[in-house]
Design a protein that fits this description.
BIG2 domain-containing protein, 0% helix, Ig_NUP210_9th, Ig_NUP210_6th, 7 domains, Ig_NUP210_13th, Immunoglobulin-like, mainly beta, 4-stranded antiparallel beta sheet
Length: 634
């Protein structure tokens, strides 16, 4: 029956729900800062105060507390070793108390620095705002057994005598049904051992992941071992006793020479119809090419074909330079190009009439990791030398024998050049060249959206278009795999109708809590300790809240421990306040004409009376100890 007007600063608040008489409001906080909320009581319905009553409340609004990073993963060591990592806190008042739910896995200092313990598992780190214990942020720390190691994709082109950094990634095993592995954030305290299949190519810097390219080019395999660990067999990963294998990772490297320009010396006839080509060989495949004088000739670098087209403009001498963008070389590759007019010439006929040079097949499609032998036909006979190259070394690689291997999804071109020796002059002559197109099949991905709780399965089947061609091993026509997916419900405290609502109890009352995960997970309740005074409520360990005679507020943490390893946590406020008034509602509802009073009830009608209790703010109680007495006049 009260008539209250409330003034909210529009810069900081947006009103969502407002009662008719202004006794309560649901608002959305839009901006942090310090503001004042003012309210005026003008009277009750049908009667106004001569002098309205005005009061105000100062409100301090903070940004939400966010801990960065949200998740940290560290490797577990057989011998105790402690990793340390500072946690960045965003939002809040700036004054926090820290807690760890499992200090045997990870503990946190008063300054927000995490230190790992001796045990494997996980711990939830929480930062509580001293100004308001309901305001908190959290992050997760995992200490996992390392189960695999791999080399991270990085630059692997290096000049002889230089240092090559080969970063690695260590993966730990989560305690889940799907045997999921995640990369660790820090493996600096782990011992690594390095082995190579060929000696004399690299020198290893002891205790680091760097190697020095020592002597010659070629292929080499580098294997890294995690010292002191064994890889658990997936079939018995949960068993304390099992079959163990060493945790290793291997990378295959191709060591190449510096880039070269072929030919290194070239004489070009000064005529607008002349078009000459200079090839780029060896190197990483990524180059920058320029010339010293653009008035003597024009040059166009075709990256996809890995050569430079030259057109003369006027007589002169030009130096062409090619810089490798991936290799740290002592200097660029050079070629001297002479543009000259012709004053005299000699005709020298080379006695080689031969069929066109071709690469077979003309187009190749491979899956990642697939290999194929590139064949050739035609050209000068006998074929003295065929040089194979590829325009994109990241997509695929080809060796000197024409063996092609797909690396990643994409398209590239393989170029074949036939070189032979002229019988009369003894010079090496490029007689013919041709290219073929290579493409790798695309991978695929799916996004799944959960719609309801329950279990389901996802099966993926890959079919070969032509099984007889041996696209799959053992000439099978398909591969398939299947995973099980479980969708679980969100944790919610059932007495609350709004996520931001608090539990309201009267003094000396009790309330049995219920959640949406009861019967599906282990639910734990914990009353947070207040920094300055005792809590106004107690919890018996089974979800029963009991309030004492004192009024005030406390924070309640509700955690559901799911059987598949994940946890859900919500924090809500519990306020103890005296009952201010009650309201009586009847059902069913009776409809009457406008401005007409209900003078009597139908004979024989059954009425249900519902009594609700409220505090001074108009909030309804979830639990109270008020006794009701019913008095009838007849």
């Amino acid at each position: 029956n009260l008539n209250i007007a409330t003034i909210l600063p529009e810069l900081h608040f947006t009103t969502l729900v407002r009662s008719i008489n202004g006794t309560y409001l649901y608002v959305d906080v839009t901006m942090n800062g310090q503001e004042v909320i003012r309210a005026t009581l003008y009277g009750v319905v049908g009667e106004s105060l001569l002098i309205p009553i005005t009061n105000h409340q100062e409100v301090m609004i903070y940004e939400p507390i966010i801990l960065k990073p949200k998740t940290l993963v560290f490797p577990w060591h057989p011998k105790p070793r402690s990793y340390r990592h500072p946690i960045q806190v965003i939002g809040g008042s700036g004054n926090f108390t820290w807690s760890s739910c499992n200090e045997s896995v990870a503990l946190v200092t008063v300054k927000g620095v995490i230190a790992t313990g001796d045990n494997r598992g996980f711990s939830i780190i929480q930062a509580w705002d001293v100004e308001n214990p309901i305001h908190f942020g959290k992050m997760r720390v995992n200490v996992l057994r390392p189960v695999s190691i791999e080399f991270v994709r990085s630059r692997v082109e290096i000049e002889v005598g230089q240092t090559l950094d080969l970063p690695i990634m260590v993966y730990g095993l989560l305690d889940s049904d799907d045997m999921e592995t995640v990369p660790v954030n820090d493996c600096s305290l782990m011992n690594l051992a390095v082995e190579m299949d060929k000696q004399g190519v690299f020198k290893v810097i002891q205790g680091h992941r760097m190697v020095i390219v020592y002597k010659r080019k070629g292929t080499v395999s580098i294997t890294v071992y995690l010292v002191g660990y064994r890889k658990t067999n997936i079939a018995i990963a949960k068993s304390p006793v099992g079959v163990f294998l060493p945790i290793t990772a291997t990378i295959d490297l191709l060591l190449v020479d510096d880039v070269s320009l072929v030919p290194r010396n070239l004489t070009v006839y000064n005529h607008p119809d002349i078009l000459e080509i200079v090839y780029l060989t060896e190197g990483s495949g990524y180059f920058f090419v320029n010339t010293t004088d653009t008035e003597i000739l024009t040059s166009t670098y075709l990256e996809t074909k890995n050569y430079v087209q030259i057109r003369p403009l006027q007589p002169g001498i030009v130096t062409m330079k090619a810089y490798d963008l991936c290799l740290t070389c002592k200097g660029p590759a050079r070629a001297e190009i002479y543009v000259s007019d012709i004053f005299d010439f000699e005709l020298d006929f080379i006695h080689k009439v031969f069929p066109p040079f071709r690469l077979i097949p003309r187009k190749v499609t491979l899956i990642i990791g697939g290999m194929m032998q590139v064949m050739s036909e035609g050209g000068p006979q006998p074929q003295s030398n065929i040089y194979f190259s590829i325009n994109n070394h990241t997509i695929a690689k080809v060796n000197e024998l024409g063996q092609l291997t797909a690396l990643v999804v994409g398209t590239a071109k393989v170029i074949g050049i036939v070189q032979a020796v002229d019988d009369d002059t003894g010079r090496v002559v490029v007689f013919s060249q041709i290219s073929l197109q290579l493409s790798a099949e695309h991978n695929f991905a799916m996004l799944l959206y959960s719609k309801a709780e329950g279990k389901t399965g996802l099966k993926v089947t890959i079919k070969a278009q032509n099984p007889s061609a041996g696209q799959f091993e053992r000439y099978v026509d398909r591969f398939s795999d299947e995973i099980q997916i479980m969708v679980f419900g969100i944790l919610q405290l059932l007495p609350l109708s709004l996520p931001a609502e608090e539990v309201l109890m009267s003094p000396n009352s009790y309330l049995k809590l219920q959640t949406s995960r009861d019967g599906k997970a282990y639910v734990n309740y914990e009353v947070r300790k207040c920094p300055h005074n005792k809590s106004v409520i107690m919890e018996d360990g089974h979800g029963v809240l009991t309030s004492g005679s004192r009024t005030g507020s406390s924070a309640l943490t509700v955690t559901s421990l799911e059987y598949f390893g994940l946890n859900q946590t919500i924090v809500t406020g519990v306020r103890v306040a005296p009952v201010a008034y009650l309201s009586i509602n009847t059902s069913p509802k009776l409809y009457i004409a406008k401005n007409e009073e209900l003078a009597a009830l139908p004979l024989g009608m059954t009425l249900t009376f519902t009594v609700n209790f409220y505090d001074l703010s108009g909030d309804q109680f979830h639990a109270h100890n008020t006794k009701l007495y019913l008095a009838l006049n007849r």
